[in-house]
Amino acid sequence: MSSRVFKVWRGDKSGGRFVDYQVQAEEGMVVLDAIHQIQRTQAPDLACRWNCKAAKCGSCGAEVNGKPRLMCKTRLDALPPGDVVSVSPMRSFPLIRDLVTDVSWNFQVNQKIPPFTPRPDATWIMQQEDVDRVQEFRKCIECFLCQNVCHVLREHDLKQHFFGPRFFVRIASLQMHPMDGLDRMALLKDQAGLGLCNVTKCCTEVCPEEIHITDNAIIPMKERVVDRYYDPLAWLWRKIRHAP
Amino acid sequence: MTDTSCKYETHEHDVIVIGAGGAGLRAAIECSAQGARTALICKSLLGKAHTVMAEGGIAAALAHMDGQDNWQTHFQDTLYGGKYLNNWRMAQLHAQEAPERVRELERWGAVFDRTPDGKIMQRAFGGHTWRRLAHVGDRTGLELIRTLQDKGVHQGIDVFMECTITRLLKDGQRVCGAFGYWRQTGRFVVFQAKAVVLATGGIGKCFKITSNSWESTGDGHALAYQAGAQLVDMEFMQFHPTGMVWPPGVMGLLVTEAVRGEGGLLCNNQGQRFMEKYDPKRMELSTRDVVARAIYTEVKEGRGSPHGGCFLDISHRGAETIKRKLPSMYHQFKELADVDITKEPMEVGPTAHYTMGGIKVDADTGASGVPGLYAAGECTGGVNGANRLGGNSLSDLIVFGQRAGAGAAAYASQAAAPRLDQEQVEAAAREMTSYFGRPSAEDPYRLHLDLQNTMQNLVGIFREEKDLTTALARLEELKQRAAKVGVVEGQRIYNPGWHLCRDLANMLICAEAITRAALWRKESRGAHSRLDFPQYDDYFGEHNLLVQNDGGVMKVEPCPVVKVPELIPLVEQRKAREKK
User: Fold this and answer.
1) CA distances from B288 to A139, B199, B420 (A)
2) Which residues of chain A are within 8 Å of residue B214 when distances are taken between CB atoms?
3) How far apart are CA A124 and CA B232, in angstroms?
């Protein structure tokens, strides 16, 4: 067993600092194991949110060496050997204490999205290939790493005007559901602020579930919004079709 | 200076649901749909409960893959798996209503894998006669919880996240609310309610090697016990046959039974498919109790894998199928253990996974023996008897979540407004602040580890009287130490050490209940294996064990299995078939 130095951010709203801890590194250890070891042996009050320790619940998001990661899935042997490992809270959300942030804004956003609403003629017969895409979106474990890294939220803090990648994925999972009968295009264009996304794919890069957030959710929905609201030919066609 | 204020805020509802996994969410949705003002209280964030870890599927006799399937067969399979100690009425309702609850999930937006003709796909699983598990790859639990979560938040349910209930409050005999604390602020909160539904899940954290998350500390079991309710079948702890055994940090992490459902083979270090010795008929798809004992025995007799498990191989199914049907398993092994399961076998071994035991409830309404107190899901006992079949948990959650929700809402609509007893609230608050400022306090982390080792080593897969007696003596010592456990460092805001101090009290009650019931049952049946009583016993085969608080002393007593006369022919038919 070798020893490794961890710099863990300790503090609350009023301020804080990185504190060094020596961790006994075991084979196959992940960052969350190290945090638990620190709690058990050196800092029993170190605040950290976690649940399943299997990358299924999405609770333990943090920034490891400055990169947004799930702590339960980040192996020490995948980090540069010998170096100090820094662990700090997700930066885009208000801090509660140590590694725990207030992610309640995300739950408020979710509530603004009209839920699944079956078409009146829904048969519930769906082919696998018709639901593959929706299932990809439904893999989301709500770790909010994509929200954390999205610069519309991280640098510009436009939480009032922008739902963020997680909820574009959520809306896409509803819009592309073969049995859903609701139209959420106006929501996407206005309240959700889809247009603010400039497709830098930062969200896709950090997704632990490897959901193709940008390519499969955001871009197709941007295209639908453009077709609906900004395509002059489509606009004209709708006018003619709906003319009395 | 630590804030030792006992101030609290108060909320008033018709029904509060404690726990927001599948059962709690389904109960809250039902309460709210019946017009009750409903609160849903969860120890973690919404959508993170242990239900997300359920992988393989939801058992329901939809008969999409095998047209012969029906509720009667599902009922028979459940009783056979539970070694006929199940509450028959619960097993009946469960088998009858699971298909409708699954179709309801689909109508609420769940997207299950599809059959070639576009219906909900079903897979084979241990102990199920037909292909019965509706599933989404190997992340069915996530699909279930997300569907219920998105349904629930649009229904006007008040959700209280990261809020831990430490005590049920009573008005005379009836329950009238609960006391808890906000993790994010450390402040206290009182919920006043006409009815309470417990849906707090399992008790896996009593054991060292477990598939359960930190939340599974038996809160509902302990709260109900302290409030005067009976627990049933506590001796039956399911050790899932296949948990990861390496690396050390993930020891116990679940490897879904779907691996075997999709054709995975179990081998020992001599390359022998050892299940042919233990259950030649069902082989890898035998019931979990049998497979767990088989692996344990192979390892103990020197035929284990390098890290103390056995081999589970699915690589013959081909990379494409594996990645499509078992994507989480593929990633889990690739990322955490450097093992590519499309090319090489996994190493697996038994892990404490699920408790069949729990609060004794009325099958139809979820009512416990305490007026106003209801329960659903893993924190209840009855439907699974001595051993649960894979897939019967998710169906249990939605069938009995719905029933307990309806039961609690109906009770609340008739009940008078309860009175809060100030003294109980203050006592609960004092308990929580008492962990601060104890000189030379016991370390809660150390104590937890000692508890886990005691249970793992003395009350594990194989049990015997001397071990169980030793365990009881150790638990007594641990209780003494727990009285001195304290917060060595820090404040009330999001303090995991403080939290663990309180969790320990619950785990100790559960551990004692398991051990006392295990000592009482002098036979081997289902998940309970006694080395000193290796056979079935006719008396115990007709009796469940009840655990309850008798003036501060934990009492165990037998009671006859709950049977349904009109189902006797079905049960006899199955018993006759098994004898052949």
Assistant:
1) 28, 24, 45
2) 50-51
3) 40
Place A181 in a pLDDT band, splitting at 50, 70 and 90: very high
Q: Which two tokens stand for residue B277?
A: 């010795």
Neighbours of B492 (CB within 10 A): 23
Q: Does B156 touch chain A (CB under 8 A)?
A: no
Domain C-terminal end among A51, A71, A101: A101
Are both A222 and A148 inside the same structural domain? yes
pLDDT for residue B6: 82
Check if B260 is active-site: yes
Question: Contacts by B502-505 with C-beta closer than 8 Å and gap 24+?
Answer: B502/B164, B502/B166, B502/B431, B502/B432, B502/B435, B503/B205, B503/B217, B503/B219, B503/B448, B504/B444, B504/B447, B504/B448, B504/B451, B505/B222
Task: Give the domain range for residue A227.
Answer: 104-233
Write the residue in A46, A100, A107 that is nearest to B46 by C-beta. A107
pLDDT, average across residues A134-146: 98
Q: B439: Cβ–Cβ under 8 A, 6 or more apart, which residues? A: none
- In chain B, residues 301-330 whose CB comes closer than 8 Å to chain A: 328
- Look-up: residue for tokens 């006759």? B576
Could you read off the pLDDT of B437-482 as tens digits, one per residue?
887 789 999 999 999 999 999 999 999 999 999 999 999 999 999 9
Domain match, A229 and A127 both? yes
**Residue A74 φ/ψ, nearest 5 degrees:** -100, 105
Summarize pLDDT for B507-529 with one digit per residue, the tens: 999 999 999 999 999 999 999 99
| Interior angle at CA B345, CA B343 and CA B351, nearest 5 | 145
Query: Could you tell me the pLDDT band of residue A244, with boundaries at 50, 70 and 90?
Result: low
**What CATH number should be reported for the domain holding residue A7?**
3.10.20.30
The interface residues of chain B toward chain A in range 171-200, judged by CB-CB distance below 8 A, are 184
Sign of CA dihedral B157, B160, B164, B165: negative
| A28 chain-B contacts, CB cut-off 8 A | 246-250, 336-338
* Tokens read off for B5: 């204020």
Instruction: Judge if A144 and A33 occupy the same domain.
Output: no
Tell which of A101, A131, A166 closes a domain. A101
Residues 6+ apart with CB under 8 A from B393: B54, B354, B378
Same domain, A81 and A119: no
Residue B2 confidence (pLDDT): 61
Distance CA A155, CA A150 (A): 8
Domains of chain B: 8-236+356-414 (3.50.50.60), 241-350 (3.90.700.10), 431-541 (1.20.58.100)
| CB-nearest partner of A59 from B44, B111, B117 | B44
Could you tell me if B379 and B404 are in contact, meaning their C-beta atoms sit under 8 angstroms apart?
no
Work out the pLDDT band at B279, boundaries 50, 70, 90: very high
A116 and A96 in a common domain: no
